[in-house]
């Protein structure tokens, strides 16, 4: 009986020390983690709003979006969106021009197949979206009006990215109308 209690007490002490150490390390790195996340978000906003040196966060009807400005004028808008891909949910940050055209997108997170669906994050695939408006934001294989080539062996991912970008453009247009921001 004494050895069981002794072993239990030792195990409790080891677990308490480990938990305390983990809590201290977390508290010590929390500020750095937050700073890194903010820096990464700023980098991605610069990617999707390349000609907008100033970016202001906005919230309209509970949805966060970003207004890009240059020399006192609106030069773009960015918004996060999600779409269902092959491996799960894709999270995208999409930049939209004042004219409602795609400036670019960045994939924030995904679980797509390495070597296939993850190519949606490559600049070569992303480039075909630049400058497109809603009328052309479709895959060629899905619509004669479409301007986008699907990734080989990753059609579901291609559709998900396309739908996510379309949803972002539609959302920006609607949010701008509600927020009152006009070019």
User: Which structural class do you get from the secondary structure elements?
Assistant: alpha+beta
Structurally, the number of domains stands at 2
Elements, N to C (H/E): HEEEEEHH
Q: Outline, from the CA principal axes?
A: elongated
Distance between the termini: 79 Å
Q: Which percent range describes the beta-strand content?
A: 15-25%
Task: Give the number of helices.
Answer: 3
Low-pLDDT runs: none
Task: Enumerate the strands of the largest sheet in spatial order, edge to edge or round the barrel.
Answer: 1-2-3-4-5
Number-wise, the strands total: 5
Q: What is the helix content?
A: 40-55%
Rg is 23 Å
Overall pLDDT level: 88
Largest sheet: 5 strands, antiparallel
What would the keywords be for this entry?
3 helices; 183 residues; alpha+beta; 5-stranded antiparallel sheet; 5 strands; 2 domains
Molecular structure report:
The chain is α+β, with helices and mostly antiparallel strands. The chain folds into two domains: 1-43; 49-179, no CATH class. The chain contains three helices and five strands. A hairpin with a 2-residue loop joins strand 2 (63-70) and strand 3 (73-84). The protein is elongated, with a radius of gyration of 23 Å. The chain starts with a helix and ends with a helix. The model has no long low-confidence stretch (mean pLDDT 88).
Concise synopsis of the structure shown:
The protein is of the alpha+beta class and 183 residues long. 42% of the residues lie in helices and 23% in strands.
């Amino acid at each position: 009986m004494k050895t069981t209690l002794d072993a239990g007490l030792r195990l409790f002490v080891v677990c308490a020390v480990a938990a305390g150490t983990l809590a201290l390390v977390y508290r010590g790195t929390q500020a750095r983690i937050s700073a890194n996340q903010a820096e990464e978000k700023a980098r991605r906003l610069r990617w999707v709003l390349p000609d907008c040196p100033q970016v202001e966060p906005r919230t309209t009807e509970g949805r966060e979006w970003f207004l890009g400005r240059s020399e006192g004028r609106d030069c773009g808008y960015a918004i996060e969106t999600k779409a269902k891909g092959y491996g799960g949910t894709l999270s995208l940050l999409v930049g939209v021009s004042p004219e409602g055209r795609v400036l670019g997108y960045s994939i924030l997170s995904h679980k797509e197949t390495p070597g296939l669906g993850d190519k949606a994050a490559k600049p070569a695939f992303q480039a075909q979206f630049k400058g497109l408006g809603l009328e052309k934001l479709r895959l060629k294989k899905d619509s004669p009006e479409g301007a986008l080539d699907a990734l080989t062996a990753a059609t579901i991912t291609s559709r998900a990215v396309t739908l996510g970008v379309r949803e972002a453009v539609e959302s920006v247009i609607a949010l701008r109308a509600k927020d009152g921001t006009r070019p």
